[in-house]
Structure formats: C-alpha cells, structure tokens
C-alpha cells in the first residue's frame, strides 16, 4: 500500500465519519433527543457547530478524491 492510498483512505474515512456524525446530530436535535444549546461554543450557535462538522467532512471527502486526480496528472 502506497503513501498515497493511506492518505486517501484516511481522508475518506475521516470525512465520512464527520459527515455522518453531523447528519445524525441534526436528526437527533430535530427529534428532540439533544438541544442545540449543548453544542454552543463561545460565540457560535449550536447549529453552526454541527454544520461545521458536516462541511469539514465534505471538504475532506473532496480532498480524498482530489488526491487521485493530482497524482495521476503529475505523473503524465
């Protein structure tokens, strides 16, 4: 397994985890199992913190798919 595949797998796994964790948290909040105030952090509201998790996961997923394109273009 090359270093490229290890980095790609790590980014993919972490991105999927963060995206699904944010989605599940939103579902739990809308079902009333959690309150948004639980996720308040300084000046950021709970909605912002939860959405930042999902957005970070999406960015990591995009990076994991972009690594393959980057290495394929640089070798040709």
Task: Tell me what the structure shows.
The protein is 78% helix and 0% strand. It contains two helices and no strands. The longest helix has 30 residues. The protein is elongated.
Which characteristics define this entry?
76 residues, mainly alpha
Write the layout of secondary structure elements.
Blueprint: H1 3-31, H2 46-75
Helix pairs in contact: 1-2
Oligomeric state, counting identical vs distinct chains: single chain
Number of helices: 2
Provide the β-strand percentage band: under 5%
Q: What is the H/E order? A: HH
Structural class: mainly alpha
Number of domains: 1
Largest sheet: none
Helix content: over 70%
- Unreliable residue runs: none
What is the CA–CA distance across the termini?
A: 21 Å
Shape, per Cα inertia axes? elongated
Number of E strands? 0
Condensed summary:
The chain has two helices and no strands.
């Amino acid at each position: 397994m090359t270093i490229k595949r290890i980095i790609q797998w790590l980014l993919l796994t972490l991105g999927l985890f963060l995206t699904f964790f944010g989605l599940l948290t939103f579902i739990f909040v809308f079902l009333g199992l959690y309150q948004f105030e639980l996720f308040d952090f300084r000046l950021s509201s709970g909605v912002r913190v939860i959405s930042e998790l999902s957005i970070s996961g999406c960015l990591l997923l995009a990076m994991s798919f972009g690594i393959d394109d980057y290495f394929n273009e640089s070798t040709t």
